[in-house]
């Protein structure tokens, strides 16, 4: 995305530079009153800024009114970065128009210069903010997501906190489909259970959507890109799978093998009992 941006930036500069050169060729003052332009630019700037702020505000209102830690978790991981980026784009556009809303004097050269500086500044700011959102902001997001994932759930029946089961305990509550899914993909099911065991809450977390800290560059951009099953687990034996990770920032790749639990643990329990 970053490289793409730089490419776009240089393309735009290439487009703007000839305009500048052309403009220089015929340097003459355009005798006009710029009030209507200034007025228009200021209005566009204000509307654009308002839209940016509304988008950000709308997001935070939606987030604070979202009930339940799991729903909040999903909402943040799906929408926060893209929404913030969207808001930032409007604010940048607003800045560009605002910076050009006080024109008193204009020549074709000045139009070129203003256009060039506005576009260049906008791109620089955009690249900086995008980098922050993509590589630094995820640390902050992951911290909040972790809190949300492990925050004790409150039972809707008793109003009391529930307990998170361990990997071993939870299998009893996961049907075969879910167990198989946990085995085939890096999907995690969290099982929360109420005091008396009557209230059960099952939450699904997809591993490939979740970024880890890259061991090479330390950014929170290390993700599962491929999973392969080396050995299918059977009813009696554990299997094995290989997880392929790739860093979205520095491109560092790594493999990690993982044990796939024996399937149909529930049946085994009853068989041994
Ligand atoms: Zn990296």
Please, could you describe this protein's structure?
The chain is an alpha+beta fold and 273 residues long. It contains seven helices and six strands. It has three domains: 2-150, no CATH class; 153-209, no CATH class; 211-262, no CATH class. The chain has helices spanning 2-25, 35-65, 69-99, 108-150, 167-170, 176-184, 265-272; strands spanning 163-164, 187-193, 200-206, 222-231, 239-247, 253-260. The strands form two sheets. It has a three-stranded antiparallel beta sheet, with helices on one face. Strands 4-5-6 form a three-stranded antiparallel beta sheet, with no helix packed on it. 12% of the residues are buried. Zinc ion (ZN) is lined by residues 214, 216-217, 219, 221, 247, 249-250, 252.
User: Radius of gyration from the CA trace?
Assistant: 27 Å
- H-E string: HHHHEHHEEEEEH
Order of neighbouring strands in the sheet with most strands: 1-2-3
Distance between the termini: 56 Å
Give the helix tally. 7
Helical proportion? 40-55%
Bound molecules: zinc ion
Number of strands: 6
Largest sheet: 3 strands, antiparallel
Low-confidence stretches: 265-273
> What integer is the average pLDDT?
83
- Helix vs. strand class: alpha+beta
Overall tally of structural domains? 3
The backbone outline, from C-alpha atoms, is elongated
Q: Work out the strand percent.
A: 15-25%
What's a quick, concise take on this entry?
The chain is an alpha+beta fold. The chain contains 7 helices and 6 strands.
